[in-house]
Amino acid sequence: MSNETLSAVFENIVKSEDNLIRLCQDLIRFPTVNPPGNDYQACVEYIGNRLKSRGFTVEYIRAYGAPGDSADYPRYNVIARYETGRVGPCVHFNSHIDVVETGDGWTKDPFAAELIDGKIYGRGACDMKGGLAASIIAVEALIASDIELKGTIEISGTADEESGGLGGVAYLAEKGYFSKDRVDHVIIPEPLNVDRVCLGHRGVWWAEIKTHGRIAHGSMPFLGDCAIRHMGAVVASFEDKLYPAMAARHTSMPVVPEGAKQSTLNINSIHGGQSEITEGLPAPCVADSCRMIIDRRFLVEEDLDEVKREIDDILSDLEKLRDGFRYEVRDMLEVIPSMTDKDAPVVKATAEAIKEVLGKTPEFICSPGTYDQKHIDRIGDLKDCIAYGPGILELAHQPDEYVIVEDMLNSAKVMASSAYKLLMGKSS
Question: Which residue range forms the structural domain that includes residue 415?
Answer without folding.
Answer: 3-201+337-424
